[in-house]
Amino acid sequence: MDLPQLWFVIVAFFWLGYLVLEGFDFGVGMLMRPLSRNDTDRRLIINTIGPVWDGNEVWVIVAGAATFAAFPEWYATMFSGFYLPLLVILAALIMRGVAFEFRGKINDDTWRARWDWAITLGSWIPAIMWGLAFANLVRGVELTADHQMVSSLTDLLSPYALLGAATTTLLFATHGAIFLALKTAGEMRDRAGRLAALLAVPTTVVAGAFAVWTQLAHSAHDWTWAAVVIAAVGLVVVLVATRARREGWAFGASALVIAAAVVLIFGTLFPNVMPAINDPANSLTIANASSTDYTLTIMTWVSAFLTPLIIGYQGWTYWVFRKRLTAEVIPPHAGLPARAGADGE
């Protein structure tokens, strides 16, 4: 494996970490209003991800920075061609982050309700748009000989891309419901567990259809069938475990499904990074999109030092905040919160 191929794998790993970790807190935000009955419920839901949501977002920053440094041609073409979808995602993430910080600043129901809607929309929009973006990467776009993307916005809304958007939306919603059942006790745990069991059925159908379509229509590698099989096994485990209320098994299985989906997507792309559907000769590949070996060598040493630190720190954070939460531990509002981002509790 040469350095460009190694960095293709590293970039895929960063996206895997982002989608698995941010996937459940997107799901939590998406389900906050359906699962809550009052403000205490909503604060309980927010507090399940309060200590970790901002750390989860670090992975997308690292993934984007790694793509920019390791594959500048890929970064330039993708971010210019997908400018509108990525701008929408960025705006949603900003709105969501601000909402976490601001909802507890004023003790007023109307104020909190507005920011709660911002959290909800800021979770739904990226869940939909990431699926749309990755599906279009796999399907391919129209590229000129100098690697300029010329696909129109309507070209990005193909049936396959819309199925990809539905897949990520359902996967993240199910992942989030399972996480809430895992992190809470009492009535909230029951509600989240029931919803997770309901969501597992359409998620299995839609995600299974997307995986098979991807393999049959877009993958040139037999080995990516392994990712399809692993995803299928994970979906079955999610179905069984959510009905048995085994949240730990269900959460591990849903994380495995998302990880297998990322492997399938990047495995299908290889050795391309952006296939050209109008002329394969115009495709961006790992070889023609990568930086120099000198740049990649420096990046490899830096990554080898920093990545374990990031993983270790995040693992420690999850360990510290591993206990279940209940509505009884959420105190009434009392002025400004002591810690923004976890709603003061």
UniProtKB/TrEMBL annotation:
Keyword entries, A-Z: Cell membrane, Electron transport, Heme, Iron, Membrane, Metal-binding, Transmembrane, Transmembrane helix, Transport
Major subcellular site: membrane
Domain of life assignment: Bacteria
One Gene Ontology term of the molecular function aspect: metal ion binding
One GO process term, biological-process aspect: aerobic electron transport chain
TM ranges: 6-32, 74-94, 115-137, 157-182, 194-217, 223-242, 249-274, 294-316
Listed GO CC annotations: cytochrome complex; plasma membrane
Membrane topology: Multi-pass membrane protein
Annotated InterPro entries: Cyt-d_oxidase_su2 (IPR003317)
Record localization: Cell membrane
Family note: Belongs to the cytochrome ubiquinol oxidase subunit 2 family.
This protein's name: Cytochrome bd-I ubiquinol oxidase subunit 2 apoprotein
Taxonomic classification: Bacteria, Bacillati, Actinomycetota, Actinomycetes, Micrococcales
